[in-house]
Each structure stands twice: as structure tokens, then as C-alpha cells.
């Protein structure tokens, strides 16, 4: 008997069209413009081959644009990577302005110490993971779902114990909706160029290489997610933690009691007014909530009015956020 695989047309549409780009970074209360100090592509496609050099900072079929800018970051602070379906997607013009909800998978962040963040090629050794979130097996909820619910904001805490200097910051998500076959997993990543200050400078994280950190048949890369999963192994090494013993071993599988990092809301975002400057950065003031900042929710005591060009959108009873209007 001949078996037929029937795939919903809506799934096919999401497969071909709903990609994503890490296109803005917020640091120290400043939300920088699209592509400022980030090597962004104009096309939002994925990397499917984990053995290619483009798995480090994107490129290849998705050519990236160099940037001569560097963003200052304080060690121990939390920066926010902003993800969008395309470089010009907004809630007003794109129903899936962050990522199609069918694109389920883990969300991660890596850093690499470099001499010059504007010229380093990205690929090769030196990468260490600083955060990850995968599947909560108790709820069967993926990190990408939390990212969408958080309006595309990925909070990333910079380790306080690393050396000062220039780094590449690699924000990444992996969409597993087609990961049941070879090279079916879709990897999305971009690299921001940052300069870290205020660190203790005593830590030397264990590092991995891109390509090399992932294998095409890794259980977190080659997987059928259309079943109830009792475990999920996030690709790559365990995240670096100041003061902890270091290892480049694969991350342990998730469990119902300790599956992934607790989702961090973007409440750490600045509650400042933002205005564009000629340098391409965004200046800040005080008084009202910035675009992408929290503006409400149960127990919220901060600003509830949003900066010009944005409005306060209710995400849940606990969280509202200023989003572009």
C-alpha cells in the first residue's frame, strides 16, 4: 500500500515565508537603529547546513552587510536582542512580525572575544555560550513561543567576570518544524559587534568552534517535534557561568523540573524616551516608557505612557509592552 504524506497548505506557506532576523540591540537604555553594529542580511532565510562557515554569523545565501559600528556594553548588564520577520516588519504591517508560530525551537546566545569586532570573520574557534532556553517538557512550550510572546525581545545577560574588550555577540534561534529530515532544522543567527567594559577580567571560558559546535545528527538538530517530548537536548555546549566549573560538553537534556531557563520578560528594558540621532544610535531621556519597554501589567509600578510612535499593547495580565504603532 502506498502511503501519502498530507501537509496542510498553511504549513507550507509558513515553511517558505516566515523567517526572522536579529536586527536591533538595546544596551544601557539605548535602543540602536536597525542593523546598527549588527551584520544583518537583507534576506531573512535560514542556514540549514551546520558544517558551513555561515553558521557562525550568517551569510552565504543570505549575504550580510558589514558594519563599522560597535555598541558599548557593561559586563553584568542585560542587553536585548530584537528579532523581526524582516528588517522592516512591524505589528502594523506583518501579522507574524517576529516569527511564524509554527517555527518552534530553542533560543541561545554566544560570545567570542576578538581583537577587532568590525573585521573579525566570526567563524572558527573562540565561541562560548552565555544563555539558552529550549523546551519546557511540562507544558510542551518552546523558547521561540516565549520569544514571540515577548514581542521578539531576547534578554541576554553579559557575564560579569569576563575580560574587557571587543566581542562578537551571536544571538541564535533554531526552528525545528522541519527538523525530522537531514538539514531540515532552520538556524537563524546574526552577530552584533560590542565592546565590554566593567568586567573583572578573571574568567577564561571554555570555547567551541563554529562550524564544529553542532552536528547534523545531533539530537537537538535532527528531531521530530510532532509528538509529546519527554526530553530535549539543546544543541551546543553548556552556558558559561561565572564561578562554575567550565565544560564544552553538550547541554543536558531538559526535564519537567529543570527544563530550560525561566523565560525572562523584557522588564529590564529602559523606561526612557527614545529619539533618533544622526549617528544612527538612539538617544534616551526620562518620563515615559521607551519603544519595546514594559508599560503595564499586574504589579507594574513604572511608566505607563509610551514614547511617540508606539502604543502600550497588553500581552498578558502580567505584562504590557510599548510596541511601534
Automatic annotation (TrEMBL):
Function statement:
Lytic polysaccharide monooxygenase (LMPO) that depolymerizes crystalline and amorphous polysaccharides via the oxidation of scissile alpha- or beta-(1-4)-glycosidic bonds, yielding C1 and/or C4 oxidation products. Catalysis by LPMOs requires the reduction of the active-site copper from Cu(II) to Cu(I) by a reducing agent and H(2)O(2) or O(2) as a cosubstrate.
The answer to whether UniProt assigns keyword Signal to this entry is yes
Q: Which reaction does it catalyse?
A: [(1->4)-beta-D-glucosyl]n+m + reduced acceptor + O2 = 4-dehydro-beta-D-glucosyl-[(1->4)-beta-D-glucosyl]n-1 + [(1->4)-beta-D-glucosyl]m + acceptor + H2O
A GO term from the CC aspect: extracellular region
Q: Which residues does UniProt assign to the signal peptide? A: 1-18
The record's section on SMART domains has:
fCBD
Organism (species): Botrytis fragariae
EC number(s) from the headed UniProt entry: 1.14.99.56
Query: Recorded GO terms, molecular function?
Result: cellulase activity; cellulose binding; metal ion binding; monooxygenase activity
Which portions of the sequence form the region Disordered? 253-272
| Gene3D superfamilies membership | 2.70.50.70
Fetch the CDD domains from UniProt: LPMO_AA9 (cd21175)
* InterPro entries cross-referenced by the UniProt entry: AA9, AA9_LPMO, CBD, CBD_sf
**Record keyword Cytoplasm present:** no
Where the protein is mainly located, per its record?
secreted
* Protein's recorded name: AA9 family lytic polysaccharide monooxygenase
Amino acid at each position: 500500500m502506498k502511503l501519502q504524506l498530507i501537509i496542510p497548505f498553511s504549513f507550507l506557506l509558513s515553511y517558505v515565508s516566515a523567517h526572522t532576523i536579529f536586527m536591533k540591540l538595546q544596551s544601557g537604555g539605548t535602543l540602536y537603529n536597525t542593523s546598527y553594529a549588527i551584520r544583518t542580511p537583507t534576506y531573512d532565510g535560514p542556514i540549514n547546513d551546520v558544517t558551513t562557515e555561515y553558521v557562525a554569523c550568517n551569510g552565504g545565501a543570505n549575504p550580510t552587510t558589514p558594519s563599522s559600528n560597535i555598541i558599548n556594553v557593561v559586563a553584568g548588564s542585560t542587553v536585548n536582542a530584537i528579532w523581526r520577520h524582516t528588517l522592516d516588519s512591524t505589528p502594523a504591517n506583518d501579522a507574524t512580525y517576529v516569527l511564524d508560530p509554527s517555527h518552534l525551537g530553542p533560543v541561545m546566545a554566544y560570545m567570542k572575544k576578538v581583537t577587532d569586532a568590525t573585521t573579525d570573520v566570526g567563524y572558527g574557534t573562540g565561541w562560548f555560550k552565555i544563555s539558552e532556553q529550549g523546551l519546557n517538557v511540562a507544558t510542551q512550550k518552546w523558547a521561540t513561543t516565549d520569544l514571540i510572546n515577548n514581542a521578539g525581545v531576547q534578554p541576554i545577560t553579559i557575564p560579569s567576570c569576563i575580560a574587557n574588550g571587543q566581542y562578537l555577540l551571536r544571538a541564535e534561534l533554531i526552528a525545528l518544524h522541519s527538523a525530522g529530515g537531514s538539514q531540515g532544522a532552520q538556524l537563524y543567527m546574526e552577530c552584533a559587534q560590542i565592546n565590554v567594559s566593567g568586567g573583572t577580567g578573571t574568567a577564561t571560558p571554555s570555547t567551541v568552534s563554529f562550524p564544529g559546535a553542532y552536528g547534523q545528527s545531533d539530537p537537538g538538530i535532527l528531531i521530530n517535534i510532532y509528538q509529546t517530548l519527554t526530553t530535549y537536548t539543546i544543541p551546543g555546549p553548556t552556558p558559561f557561568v561565572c564561578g562554575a566549573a567550565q565544560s564544552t560538553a553538550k547541554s543536558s537534556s531538559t526535564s519537567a523540573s529543570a527544563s530550560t531557563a525561566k523565560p525572562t520578560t523584557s522588564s529590564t528594558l529602559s523606561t526612557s524616551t527614545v529619539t533618533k540621532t544622526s549617528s544612527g544610535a538612539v538617544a534616551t531621556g526620562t518620563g515615559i516608557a521607551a519603544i519595546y519597554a514594559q508599560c503595564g501589567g499586574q504589579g507594574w509600578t513604572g511608566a505607563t505612557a509610551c514614547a511617540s510612535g508606539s502604543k502600550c499593547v497588553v500581552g498578558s495580565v502580567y505584562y504590557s509592552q510599548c510596541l511601534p504603532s
